[in-house]
Write a structure and sequence with these properties.
Elements lengths: L6 H6 L6 H8 L3 H9 L6 H14 L17 E6 L5 H14 L5 E6 L4 H12 L5 E5 L5 H8 L5 E6 L7 E5 L1 H14 L5 E5 L5 H16 L4 E6 L6 H14 L5 E4 L2 H14 L8 E3 L5 H4 L7 E4 L1 H16 L7 E3 L2 E4 L5
Parallel strand pairs: 1-2, 1-3, 3-4, 4-5, 5-11, 6-7, 6-8, 8-9
Antiparallel strand pairs: 10-12
Length: 343
C-alpha cells in the first residue's frame, strides 16, 4: 500500500491554519508574518506581539518545506513517546514500524521525557515538516498542544490511554480498570495490609491505575498502609530501593503493588537479597506483562497489555484514514490478569 496523494490527501489538510490566515487575522501582510516568525526585518514590537498572539490563537505551525515542496505531501508519520528507557514503548514502536514496513510510510520519532512543554515543542517542530499523521502518547497535553493538534489537518492518534473525547482518535487501555483488576486479585488472595511503590508526578496513566487500585480496596474497607513515590520514573533500581524503604517503615505488609513490571522486578530482587520469600512472606504485583517478568524464578503477577498491538493499531488507523477508510475514534485494547506466582 503506497502513500495517497492528490485530492484525498489534500482534503485532510484543509483545516490547517496557513500563513495567509495569520496575516488576515492580524491585519498585516504575509511578508510581515514571515518576518516575525523568522525574527528578521523591521517589525515594531506591537506588531510582533499581535502576530505571535494570533499564531498561538490559531495554533499555526510554520511550514519548513520550502519553495516548490511547500505543498508536497510527506510520507512521514510523527511519533512522540515519553521515554525509550522503558521496554513498554520500545514494543509500541516495534508495532508501529512493523505495520508501516509495507505501506510506503516512515516513522520519525521524538522523546518527550514525560515533559508536556517538551512535548509541545516536539509537536511544533514535527508538524513544521508536514507529516501525514501523528501518534502521541497519552491524553495529557498543554492547552496550546491540544489546539495545535486539533488544527493539524492530519490524522492524530493518542495512544496508551483511552479517552472518551479524544482530539481525533485514541488507542489504549482503561488504566483505572487495570489497577482495579490487580486490587480485586489481591483481595481474592486475602491480602489486607497493602503498600504501593510508584511515580505519579507526571506519569498520569500510572496515577490512574493507582486510583483504580485504591478505589476497589476502599470499597472493601481497606486503606493503603504505606506509599513510596519517587520524583522520577520508577525503574528497576528505584523499585528495589522503594520496597526496601517501604518495608523499613511497614514491615508488616502482606502485599505491594508497583506502578510497572520493571519496578516490581526490582522489588523482587530486594526480596531475594533480604531473604524474603515471595509470595509467602510478601506478595508483589505489577503492570505491563513484560516477558522478563514471566522469566523470573517466580513469574510476576501482573496485568498484561499488548503494546505491540497498540503500535500496530495506531498507525493502522492513520494509514486507513489517509486512504479514505472509516475508522473508530475510540479503540480499546484488552487487558489480562497474569496470575503468575508472586501474588
Amino acid at each position: 500500500m503506497k502513500p495517497v496523494t492528490g485530492k484525498k490527501k489534500k482534503e485532510l489538510k484543509q483545516i490547517q491554519p496557513t500563513l495567509r490566515d495569520v496575516a488576515v487575522a492580524a491585519n498585516v501582510s504575509e511578508m510581515t508574518v514571515s518576518r516575525v516568525l523568522r525574527d528578521t526585518g523591521d517589525v515594531t514590537e506591537k506588531t510582533r506581539e499581535k502576530v505571535l498572539k494570533i499564531v498561538d490563537e490559531l495554533g499555526f505551525v510554520p511550514n519548513k518545506i520550502a519553495g516548490s515542496l511547500a505543498t508536497a505531501t510527506s510520507n512521514l508519520i510523527a511519533v512522540i513517546v515519553p521515554t525509550l528507557r522503558n521496554q513498554v514503548f520500545t514494543e509500541v514502536l516495534a508495532g508501529i514500524t512493523d505495520h508501516l514496513e509495507s505501506t510506503g510510510y516512515k516513522a520519525v520519532i521524538g522523546i518527550s521525557e514525560y515533559d508536556l512543554e517538551r512535548e509541545e515543542a516536539l509537536i511544533r517542530s514535527m508538524l513544521s515538516w508536514r507529516p501525514c499523521g501523528l501518534v502521541v502518547s497519552n491524553r495529557a497535553h498543554t492547552e496550546q498542544t491540544r489546539k495545535i493538534l486539533k488544527n493539524a489537518g492530519i490524522p492524530v492518534v493518542e495512544i496508551m490511554e483511552l479517552e472518551e473525547e479524544p482530539i481525533d482518535s485514541s488507542v489504549g487501555v482503561d488504566h483505572f480498570e487495570a489497577g482495579a483488576l490487580m486490587a480485586r486479585h489481591f483481595l481474592h488472595r486475602g491480602y489486607k495490609r497493602i503498600g504501593y511503590v510508584g511515580w505519579n508526578n507526571r506519569d498520569l496513566t500510572a496515577a490512574k491505575r493507582f486510583k483504580g487500585f485504591k478505589a476497589v480496596l476502599g470499597e472493601n474497607g481497606i486503606d493503603i498502609d504505606g506509599i513510596i513515590e519517587f520524583d522520577h520514573p520508577v525503574d528497576m533500581e528505584r523499585g528495589k530501593l522503594g520496597l526496601a524503604a517501604l518495608l523499613a517503615d511497614h514491615s508488616y505488609l502482606e502485599a505491594v503493588y508497583f506502578a510497572n513490571d520493571i519496578a516490581a522486578i526490582g522489588g523482587y530482587f530486594h526480596c531475594l537479597g533480604a531473604g524474603i520469600d515471595v509470595p509467602t512472606e510478601l506478595a508483589i504485583g505489577g503492570f505491563s506483562g513484560l516477558k522478563i517478568g514471566q522469566l523470573m524464578p517466580v513469574p510476576l503477577t501482573t496485568v498484561k497489555i499488548s503494546r505491540f498491538e497498540i503500535g500496530q493499531r495506531s498507525t493502522g488507523i492513520i494509514v486507513d484514514r489517509l486512504n479514505g477508510k472509516h475508522t473508530e475514534r475510540i479503540n480499546a485494547i484488552d487487558i489480562t490478569l497474569i496470575k503468575g506466582g508472586t501474588a
